[in-house]
Amino acid sequence: MTALDLAFLAASVIAVAGGVLAITTRQVVHAALWLVVSLLGVAGAVLILGAELVALVLLLVYVGAVVVLVLFALMLTRAPIGPDTAHAPGLPRALAAGAVGAAVVTMLLSVLIPLAGGWGATVDRQSADSPRVAREIFTTWVWPFELLSLLLLAALIAALAVSRIQRDAP
Amino acid sequence: MTNPYVPLLILLALGFGFAALSVGTSLVVGPKRYNRAKAEAYECGIQPTPRAQGGGRVPIKYFLTAMLFIIFDVESVFLYPFAVAFNQLGLFALVEMVLFIITVFVAYAYVWKRGGLEWD
Amino acid sequence: MTAFIAGPNGTADFSDTPLWLSVVKALFIFVYLLVSTLLVIWFERRVIGRMQQRPGPNRNGPFGLLQTLADGMKSMLKEDLKPANADSVVFTLAPLITATMCFVSFSIMPLAGDVTLFGHRTPLQLTDLPVAVLMVLAVAGVGIYGIVLAGWSSGSTYPLMGSLRATAQMVSYEIAMGLSLVSVFLYSGSMATSQIVQAQESLWHFIPACFAFFVYVVTMVGETNRLPFDLAEGEGEIVGGYFTEYSGMRFAMFFLGEYINMFTVAALATTMFLGGWQAPFGLPDNGWWGLLWFTAKLWFFMFVFVWLRGSLPRVRYDQFMRFGWKFLIPTTLLWVVAVAFYVAAKNNWFGGPILQIAGRDYSLAVLIVIGVCASLVIVASWILGDRAERRAAERLPQIPVEVDPFAGGYPVPPLPGQRLVEPGAADDAYAATKEVSRG
């Protein structure tokens, strides 16, 4: 175990614990906060693997923008202080959801762990600096990059449609 | 030479330690005199709105602003590595980026026309 | 210019910096920021006082210098109130997030070049990352949670509104801020602060990136919620904004965060546009001199902050959002494209002959790019300016040239430029009104 391995382990534990708490807490805003903790853990793990740009983009876009959107959306409907008992799932549904979640985790682990090199794998730092990421985006991944702009266009139109802003009746 | 993120974590810990210590000290040192009126939500002296949360809903404009923010954030995130590696990328990348920006501009013009940027 | 040792990636060299020295430097930055905050609050109150022809705080210590310390002590000894229907954990967490996050960004600011510290040669910068500037933006993104959570957890109406406003304001201006920095990255080819400072050795970036500098200065005021953009705490509308329910030390943490954030954005402006710790006019800036120049530039921005607060009224929220979304973002994006074309032309990617003008080489492509951009700007300002004038003219109320002094039987004074109707005609009009009212 090197220091990097330990750091990676810590980041992963934070990510997983944050995720578990996000789905088990009874308070919606706290769930969003645990999601932030989980994302911070993921960003830390990516950072330890050597992809600084990706880690910071994760922070910028997911922590800085997406969860803010989630919080706004929560406050659009309601964001009560204290536990939200109206949306408690009940035991059967909680068990079913847990079973589905466990199945997905098992499937992903069975695929990903051999890919990463088995249980004894150590952190293999790859340098993915910004120029290299840029070269990859603008040569190999040009088409996904350009299609992404269309995706953003579609997302924006959808957001406008959802918020139903009429030009005449603002 | 240490990992460049370790000093950053040191400063983070220092800042958190200072903040926690000052808030903690003030909780110990400061007076505590219970008064029901003091614990009420402050609304300039009138009776507080009974349900600030849950009942009070915020305008949809905030949601739309956050959505617009995500879209432009994703766009600028691509601009950063592009700008850093610009000299090594060549003319082709510039053309690609201009195409990308034009598409996002179309979205922007659409939102503007539909009144998505009006706040009054 | 100075003994700047370039590391393997062209960034600052930390090979002679043991961990304990990093701890010392972290402590130094921490103390530097705290002392600066204590000073700047006093400075702001004194300068605002001068601008309003009153002395400002002058009782505690020489020139009132210890006023802020006294205020801090006072808030320490105050009762820390918590509203009954607040979310207690998050209510305490929010000021801690704000106060913690504001320190972090300063770790990548180059305060000076290489200095000798306890027998080690090390740059006066806590750490240097290849993605340093993105780090500042990301930390600002995390810092927003302090505001959102403060407003939400108070369990009160006005703080919730204030935090929503503040968040929408900060995210809106964050885009323009990020875009304005892109042109600096284009010029310097790096996101590492040390390398950006190095790239400004011959020419500071605020000249070739003048528009980006303007946008950055505007967004930096918007990001820190300072006047004229302090809509989050518009006292007339929403009491005090997101920290209405806060008192004592928890409130002081927000106060501290606001002022340190001012220093952070000013330090970023200094590093990105004003040459960092480099001295103007070839004055000495090696070693510890750099700290002097860096601090001087920082305080220049502090004065601008105070000056703005002393002279401008608060803008309306819709004006603020319109300015951000309809002017700053599109123009900055166009500016980035223009700079990209300029750099491409300078790299000679478009080919074309090299011209000799006044003994210096100019590529024809560069001149064409500059010419096209300039003429586009002129045409756009012409068309848009015309339209704005027409709209402004339409918005003015139509004032009739003649006014009836007894309209409806009540005396009406004429507006400037209006002519009174002849008395006879006025009498007729008066009679006509009487007729109408009787019938």
Distance between the termini of chain C: 93 Å
Describe the largest sheet of chain A.
Answer: none
Principal-axes geometry of chain A comes out as globular
Largest interface: B-C, 69 and 91 residues
Query: Helical amount among residues of chain C, as a percent range?
Result: 55-70%
Q: How much helix, percentage-wise, in residues of chain A?
A: over 70%
Low-pLDDT runs of chain C: 1-10
User: Which spans of chain A of ≥5 residues are poorly predicted at pLDDT below 50?
Assistant: none
Radius of gyration of chain A over all CA atoms, rounded = 20 Å
Shape of chain C: globular
The fraction of residues assigned to DSSP E strands of chain A is: under 5%
* Category by helix and strand content of chain A: mainly alpha
Could you characterize the architecture of this molecule?
- The complex is a heterotrimer of chains A (170), B (120) and C (439).
- Chain A has 170 residues and is mainly alpha-helical.
- Chain A is 75% helix and 0% strand.
- In chain A, helix 2 packs antiparallel against helix 3 (52-77).
- The longest helix of chain A is centred in the middle third of the chain and has 26 residues, at 52-77.
- Chain B has helices at 5-29, 60-84, 86-89, 91-113.
- Chain C contains 13 helices and six strands.
- In chain C, the strands form three sheets. A two-stranded antiparallel sheet of chain C has the order 1-2. In chain C, strands 3-4 form a two-stranded antiparallel ribbon. Chain C has a two-stranded parallel sheet with strand order 5-6.
- In chain C, helix 5 runs antiparallel to helix 7 (210-223).
- Mean pLDDT of chain C is 83; it is low at 1-10.
- Classes of the chains: A mainly alpha (170), B mainly alpha (120), C mainly alpha (439).
- Chains A and B meet through helix 3, helix 5 and helix 6 of A and helix 2 and helix 4 of B.
